[in-house]
Amino acid sequence: xxxxxxDVVVVGAGVIGAACADALSSAGLRVTVLxxxxxxxxxxxxxxxxxxxxxxxxxxxxxxxxxxxxRWPTLVGGTDIEWxxxxxxxxxxxxxxxxxxxxxxxxEAGIDARWITPAEALExxxxxxxxxxxxxxxPQDAQVQPVLATQALLSNVxxxxxxxxxxxxxxxxxxxxxxxxxxxxxxxxxxxxxGPWSGEVSRTLGAPIAIAPxxxxxxxxxxxxxxxxxxxxxxxxVGAVASGDADLQTSTVVESTAAGTILIGSSRERVGFDESxxxxxxxxxxxxxxxxxxxxxxxxxxxxYGGFRPYAPDHLPVIGADPRVPGLxxxxxHEGAGxxxxxxxxxxxxxxxxxxxxxxxxxxxxVDRPGVLECA
Length: 376
Known about the structure:
Blueprint: E1 6-11, H1 15-26, E2 31-35, E3 50-51, H2 60-75, E4 88-92, H3 97-108, E5 114-116, H4 118-124, E6 134-138, E7 142-143, H5 146-159, E8 163-166, E9 170-174, E10 177-180, E11 183-185, E12 187-192, H6 198-204, E13 212-221, E14 231-234, H7 236-242, E15 249-256, E16 262-268, H8 279-292, E17 301-311, E18 318-321, E19 328-332, H9 338-354
Parallel strand pairs: 1-2, 1-12, 2-8, 4-14, 12-19
Antiparallel strand pairs: 3-7, 4-6, 5-6, 9-10, 10-11, 13-16, 13-17, 14-15, 15-16, 18-19
Helix pairs in contact: 1-5, 1-9, 2-9
């Protein structure tokens, strides 16, 4: 592909696509962002906005998370994205040994994981169940409002002269450029940042990768006085995140928002793109949340919503060039950690695309690793 009016077309206007477009436009490239729906309306609109280190074991994903954590506070300037460095609290109500081991391993990797007593946990969260046997406080965990964060990144792109085009569907790719429902866009590079739909779009672009949707659901309570101060979850959550099981997995996650509502999760289930509300899942989430915070038993639920996470077979994001199609790049597979990993993902992809020495080792995220291509 030769010199074009557009240097890069980013397909997907969720937080990962927005972060990639932000980093690329910051590097001086001419960027156009496409999305078949409204901007920031897919997975990023269905998330909780978590920026976590507490749920990641030492390795490439934790390195990516730490890099993102350091970038998020200044990435969107003074824009209000409801940045809240609230910290996380992971609690055990049974055998504390697995949680103690996990926290110890994280501390060895440089994470601020503070082992606290049940009494200290109750001081931090007075409404917590007295059945807690142990807890770990993670001061580094934070939260943003995901739609505001995504829109702020896209505003950066627009301010630098980038073009945002919602309602445009990609239908192919060849030497002339990206074929869309609105015509051909000539460009040098294309970034597939379509989240759970990345597998489908990768096939359209002629280079299939093994990304599939993983369904999750969240309950939202009516606004309450200050009730939950941290992101609080039970020790089972880490295992549910790392599991590859297609069947339903639930674990207790409870946290407040700036509006005073309480978000209750989390569930994971591979059911394709089935959007139906599953009452049995909501009942399970509610039951486990009340077990962790008994005071929630009489709180009205205002609504429930669900979304799809981009699931990769080895639970690592896919970031980099596709070896099969010149000019094609992928940034996807972050599952439920997209908000937290977005800032560093955008930076890493821009570094690789522009030939700058990457700030992280990109090899673990390469597209041509076992499973990502072989299972496609």
